[in-house]
Predict the 3D structure of the following.
Amino acid sequence: MPTPLFTLLASVLLASSAFGFSGCESQNSGQPTLEYKAGQMIKAGFRGMSVDESDHIERDLVNYHLGSVVLFDYDVPRARAHRNIESPEQLARLIGELNELAGSPLLITIDQEGGRVSRLKPQYGFLPSVSAGYLGKTGDPDSTRFHAARTAETLASLGINVNLSPVVDLNLNRDNPIIGGIERSFSSDPDSVVLHASITVQEHRKRGILTTLKHFPGHGSSREDSHLGWVDVTDEWTTIELEPWRKLIERDEADLVMTAHIFNEQWDPDHPATLSSAVLTGILREELGYEGVILSDDMQMEAVRSHYGLERAVELAVKAGVDILGFANNSVYEPDIVPRVHSILIDLVRSGRIPESRIDESWQRIKTLKQNLQQ
């Protein structure tokens, strides 16, 4: 007789595999509406161990067609470990509820890098994990394969379909407070980073999980943390930091790419990478040949939030080439962030500041990405 957990997980996976895009078409053209496409370009976090505990996630999914969510265990603004994750059973149930409400494919994302950046912790009933730094130091591909497979199996069992990992930043500054200082980088050697990142991608793909290479074009040499403020890498960044991206893209091992909120006046004298067409379109798409989904790092981080208004930041990011705008809602908490961003995207098109064809480009990439989850 099936156990209650088995039955629950089976229903979650069944719901997450119902990849239809019905209910989003314009009555006149049969094509997705602008409102639907705008919602698909937003990823957001929320509070609640269940949909009923949240005061806005149902609204965001149903009314604004939110295309992606991100899950956390720790609520930073409240400074307590009570957010979305309590146990495997509870998390699987929550994901099933989200999929039911979405009505169309939903990207369920989580930062499960291993080590310090792990949302699925032993205290909630999950297996322990190790950091990228630990794996890089061992230099053992089999060890990386074992841990990546175990992580991917856990995500698949819960219904999570996107891991916001692996980090492919080079560990060029071991005192870097957000990368090297907390062992998020495999190595300072590009070939080692590519080896371990490639294994991570492959093991996730075997289990139907997409991965996210981050943080483009390389956060490993920085001295500051972009969560806290402006990060200028003009004097530190070197072209070797592009090598992992170049090689993984050439090997077709980039499902998604996440941007970095770092500034380098040699790339763009005015804007950080996330908001720079020179970086995202010029370097990532044209020079490196990346054709997939570009996901912004959290747009509520202070490197963006303190220097740009929300409307300006959204406009610049989309014009730069971002396909999915990320709002973790976990440095500050803004329950109305999805309606606000959705309204901004609609207004940008209707005012003529962004052509609808630019929204269509992102929608096509997102649709292709979501369809890949069926294969």
Remarks:
- The chain has 13 helices and twelve strands.
- The CA atoms of residues 224 and 275 lie 19 Å apart.
